[in-house]
Automatic annotation (TrEMBL):
Domain of life where this protein originates: Bacteria
Protein name from the UniProt record: Enoyl-CoA hydratase
SUPFAM superfamilies: Thioesterase/thiol ester dehydrase-isomerase
InterPro entries: HotDog_dom_sf, MaoC-like_dom, MFE-2_N
Pfam families per UniProt: MaoC_dehydratas, MFE-2_hydrat-2_N
Organism of provenance: Acidocella aquatica
């Protein structure tokens, strides 16, 4: 891995417009609209009074899959999305144009054979007004790298969720074709669609996008704690602890604390914790 090239990378700002079709397609990729008679979720998938799912900030103004570029020396087939955090400064417009300022915040070396974490940050602004919409941090686990040094400040590790019975449980099924729908919102990584690439990465079949699971978690928080009102959603952190397979049922376990929610998610069919150490804030 060429640490200096990664440290000095300049991606500048990226503008992206999204229309009602994009907003709806993103929500469909998270399973919104599974029950067309569910009027609470309908505004996310119907243009009558369209609402944008807050987690769309994770997707927009993305600099593309630059890690695939051989000049950085990243073993891109083996990399996995490790953590994602986003904080809303104001609700997402249902449609509009955003400007993203993106930077690589650091590389955390776990040592030879143990991988490395690549920390990225993005600030999102409304392109017309200049108002800040969201701050987004995402971390990739570079399983095929490590032992090559690092730079930047390492964020403190998130705490485990409480060891007690959850205050609320939300169960959301996914579809076997969930990743094939979700990828149309812009994440074309073949790991989520091509069985041959998935096998090269060490999986039996294509796995679900981390940001799809993340968006489904946002859906669970919206429905159970925000009355499906995006203005009441403040932000969220998740650690992707195990891959989710499209078609699995996800059980979210919420622990209520005075200033935030803590939660984790379990793939029911394998009894495997797929999101851990998570938190969400409400407005
Ligand atoms: C471009 C791709 C896009 C995608 O969407 S991929 C799909 C979404 N992502 C996933 O499905 C990833 C699911 N997560 C995993 O499978 C595992 O998670 C990992 C393979 C990433 C790591 O697991 P392991 O190699 O077993 O790690 P360890 O031995 O438990 O821990 C080694 C060190 O790494 C830290 N760590 C482990 N997992 C994570 C994580 N997800 N995010 C950040 N840090 C992590 C630990 O704490 C520890 O650190 P310390 O050595 O300092 O104690």
């Amino acid at each position: 891995m060429d640490i200096e090239k990664i440290r000095n990378m300049q991606l500048g700002s990226i503008e992206q417009s999204y229309d009602k079709r994009d907003t709806i397609l993103y929500a469909l990729g998270l399973g919104f609209g599974a029950d067309p008679m569910d009027e609470a979720e309908l505004p996310f998938v119907y243009e009558g009074n369209l609402l944008c799912v807050p987690s769309y900030v994770n997707v927009l103004c993305h600099p593309g899959f630059w890690a695939q570029d051989a000049e950085y020396g990243i073993d891109w087939v083996k990399l996995l999305h490790a953590e994602q955090e986003f904080k809303m400064h104001r609700p997402m417009p249902a449609t509009g144009t955003l400007r993203g300022e993106y930077r690589v915040a650091g590389v955390e070396d776990k040592g030879p054979g143990r991988g490395a974490l690549l920390h990225q940050e993005k600030e999102l602004f409304d392109a017309a007004s200049g108002e800040k919409i969201a701050t987004v941090r995402s971390t990739l686990f570079l399983r095929g790298n490590g032992g090559e040094g690092g730079f930047g400040t390492v964020p403190a590790a998130a705490e485990p969720v409480p060891e007690r019975a959850p205050d609320r449980v939300v169960i959301i099924p996914t579809l076997p074709r969930q990743a094939l729908i979700y990828r149309l919102s812009g994440d074309w990584n073949p790991l989520h669609a091509d069985p041959a690439i998935a096998r090269k990465a060490g999986f039996d079949k294509p796995i679900l996008h981390g940001l799809c699971t993340n968006g489904i978690a946002c859906r669970a928080v919206l429905s159970s704690y925000c009355g499906n009102d995006p203005a009441r959603f403040g932000g969220m952190f998740v650690r992707f602890s195990k891959p989710v397979m499209p078609g699995e049922t996800i059980r979210f376990e919420f622990f209520e604390e005075p200033d935030r929610l803590r939660f984790r998610a379990i793939a029911v069919e394998r009894d495997s914790v797929v999101l851990d150490r998570c938190s969400a804030t409400l407005v």
